[in-house]
Amino acid sequence: METKVIREKQDMTFLSWSKTRHSSGTAGTFLKAESSITGKKVYYKLSNYDKVHGVVGHECVNELIADRLLTILGVEHLHYQLIHADIRVGETPQEVWLCASEEFKQRGEDKIALDAYYDTEHLPGENEMDFCLRMGWGEYLWQMFVVDYLILNRDRHGANIEVLRNKRRRTLRLAPLFDHGLSLLFSCDTDDSIAKFDVMKDRPVQSYLGSRSAWENLSLIPKGQLPKLNPLRETDRAVLLEDLDGVISERLQEAIWSMIWKRWCAYEDFCHS
């Protein structure tokens, strides 16, 4: 997936979309599809879908921006393409921007949601965090807490972290970080809502590991174990927002950059405090 944004409109009316109600209780329906035409399984998803108005959100753009941010920071993650496409939902044709990602499982691996794996494998009285630390996943969790603070990810529930197992080889690992659509300014769909959105406000988040505060979750990282991330620089604005003109508004682009940069600066202050 070298080309991140495919602006030339693609005919993807062959995809069959299934509806999934968002698990966190956030209003909206999110449609997903998959194909294996190229020999690799590819997963597609749409932004927030409304039966009357069609696709009305910009969560797919958030996936691409988060992908670029994690690449800069040096955090392992799932990669996304943003594709301009004609699709069909039921009998209704639509022109949309969708995102695509390739299967991240390796041959012989199966996957299980972390919350389900914890339910079957934890020791008596062992909470979710202690379980993950016993499994040797501490560095992964600390990176996840930082990322989720920077983009204000509101949806890190127990199925948005996956365990990958190869029973024959007896290997076990956590999947690369994925599913960052419900982050940044995902709830803002007008200039007025963008202008009123406080990018530094500590809004409630759903976090399977940690609290309802993305900021407070940074304090769960043990002293001396802050993740070693590549620094974010002001010049990275161009990288994060490359080729998004005409996809989302300039005002939304500016607000997204302001959010990421201000939160990065606050995180640096946290690291030095």
| Total number of domains | 2
Beta-strand residue fraction: 15-25%
Low-confidence stretches: 21-27
Helix content estimate: 25-40%
CATH topology of the largest domain: Phosphatidylinositol 3-kinase Catalytic Subunit, Chain A, Domain 5
Query: At the first level of CATH, what is the class of the largest domain?
Result: Mainly Alpha
Strand order of the largest sheet: 1-7-8-4-3-2
Number of H/I helices: 8
Which H/E pattern describes the elements? Answer: EEEEEEHEEEHHHEEEHEHHH
- Our measurement of the CA-to-CA distance between the termini, rounded to an integer number of angstroms, reads 39 Å
- Mean pLDDT over all positions: 93
Largest sheet: 6 strands, mixed
Mind telling me which CATH architecture of the largest domain this is?
Answer: Orthogonal Bundle
Radius of gyration, in Å, reads 19 Å
Concise synopsis of the structure shown:
This protein has about 270 residues and is α+β, with helices and mostly antiparallel strands.
Protein described:
The protein has 273 residues and is of the alpha+beta class. Helix content is 30%, strand content 23%. It has two domains: 5-102; 110-272, Orthogonal Bundle (Phosphatidylinositol 3-kinase Catalytic Subunit, Chain A, Domain 5), CATH 1.10.1070. The strands form four sheets. It has a six-stranded mixed beta sheet with strand order 1-7-8-4-3-2, covered by helices on one side. Strands 9-11-12 form a three-stranded antiparallel beta sheet. Strands 5-6 form a two-stranded antiparallel ribbon. The chain is globular and about 50 Å long. Residues 21-27 have low confidence and may be disordered.
